[in-house]
Specification:
This protein has 255 residues and is α/β, with parallel strands linked by helices. The protein has eight helices and twelve strands.
Length: 255
């Protein structure tokens, strides 16, 4: 894995890791050991598993704060691990993929992963992204019940209304509930908070992922694609070379 020049880590990288539990599910011992050592150096309590069934059992047993999960695993793959872990208890997941394949990443995001990295990867960047995921979850918990998280946004769409309930973190389109991952929900709220305003990829990356570096903008693109698959392609407009804009059907917005 890379050890060369790396992007600057997110703000506050390494803060708040003490006492947090990370599970690493990786069948390559060299990678698993290296990731575990680095996360422990950051203050995490780290547990490891080398196959799919072991990863699910470990997550059930220790209830981790974050999971680093390889896609290709013996027993069953990381996608199935992610499905089972998220069904039991929502937890931020960083997936590791061996191929830089957009389809694989979209499938991973679709089963509940929050972020992904392609091998070989920078260990420094992996740690920074893990820290950012943990901070985002903590920030969401702290915002519950505060004015910043309160209220419901309602937008007209082609087949009815899109309702974004920020208190309960639930979304409905045309009366049907749509299951979004925590990252997808945060991305939607960020876009919907400024309807018809173009937000750059870098701005979205900073506000949603707490990762202020252009190296991660493809993560934004993949999550937007996943959001479109669940909510419809009509809601998010691509501004080529710049970023994205949330585009409800009419002018009315309440919340």
């Amino acid at each position: 894995m890379s050890t060369g020049s790396t992007p600057a880590p997110p703000r506050g990288a390494g803060e708040g890791a003490a006492g947090r539990t990370a599970v690493v599910v990786e069948d390559e011992p060299t990678i698993a050991d290296a990731v575990a050592r680095r996360l422990r150096a950051e203050g995490y309590v780290v547990e490891t598993a080398a196959d799919g069934p072991g990863g699910v059992e470990l997550c059930e047993r220790v209830s981790p704060d974050v999971v680093v999960l390889d896609v290709m695993l013996p027993g069953f793959d990381g996608l199935e691990v992610c499905r089972r872990v998220q069904a039991a208890r929502p937890v931020p997941v960083l997936m590791l993929t061996a191929r830089d394949d957009e389809t694989d990443k979209l499938v991973g995001l679709g089963v509940g992963a929050d972020d992904y990295m392609t091998k070989p990867f920078s260990m420094r960047e992996l740690v920074a992204r893990v820290n950012a995921l943990v901070r985002r979850v903590e920030r969401a918990r702290q915002l519950v019940g505060t004015p910043a998280a309160a209220g419901t946004l309602v937008f007209p769409v082609a087949d009815g209304e899109l309702v974004v309930d920020r208190d309960q973190r639930r979304v409905r389109r045309a009366g049907t509930e749509v299951h979004l991952t925590p990252t997808e929900f945060d991305l939607l709220v960020c876009l919907a908070g400024s309807p018809r305003t173009v937000l750059t990829r870098e701005k979205l990356l900073e506000d949603v992922w707490d990762w202020a570096d252009a190296s991660g903008t493809r993560t934004v693109d993949s999550h937007v694609k996943a959001l479109r698959r669940k909510l419809g392609a009509d809601l998010v407009r691509t501004v080529h070379g710049v970023g994205y804009a949330f585009e409800p059907a009419g002018d009315g917005t309440t919340g």
